[in-house]
UniProtKB/TrEMBL annotation:
One of its GO terms (biological process) is rRNA transcription. It comes from the Bacteria. InterPro entries: CarD-like/TRCF_RID, CarD-like/TRCF_RID_sf, CarD-like_C, CarD-like_regulator, CarD_C. Residues 7-117 form the CarD-like/TRCF RNAP-interacting domain. This is CarD family transcriptional regulator. It holds the Pfam family CarD_C. Gene3D superfamilies: 2.40.10.170, CarD-like, C-terminal domain.
Amino acid sequence: MAAKALSFDVGDYVVYPKHGVGRVIELQSTDIAGMQLELYVLRFEKERMTLRVPTNKAESVGMRKLSSDKTMQEALATLKGKPKVKRTMWSRRAQEYEAKINSGDLVSIAEVTRDLFRADDQPEQSYSERQIFEAASSRLARELAAMEQMDEPKALEKILEILNKAAAIYNKDKAVEK
């Protein structure tokens, strides 16, 4: 695996684990401490941020191409699943959720989105739960949007539609339970 370096071209969408979906806007060559260094210049429009990643470090930091259709379908299927409610302290759960989001793994991000989703007829979320939910759903929506050539709000709408349908099923189950 180490022998095959990842290669991205200008214009490619890429996923950088800590920041989500960005676009390679330039391949740059710069001289640092007397050494020639090749860099990918990434642009993250939503954050209005530019990031320079050495080409030889791209793989080790977890930078990757957009997910495959199969992985995206798996992530969307995860959204349809039953939310897993953990009874551990919120601070520990929040750390786990943040780690999943920052892993860059699409299915893990979908799990966080599913587990923190609240339908309109469900109890309110705390501020920090809402923040983590929005971070996860936004990350998922940006990758879906880039893959399906749609804008992020449309992708988020599609995700929320899936979550609402699943919530209707699982909330009905709760009402029927004896």
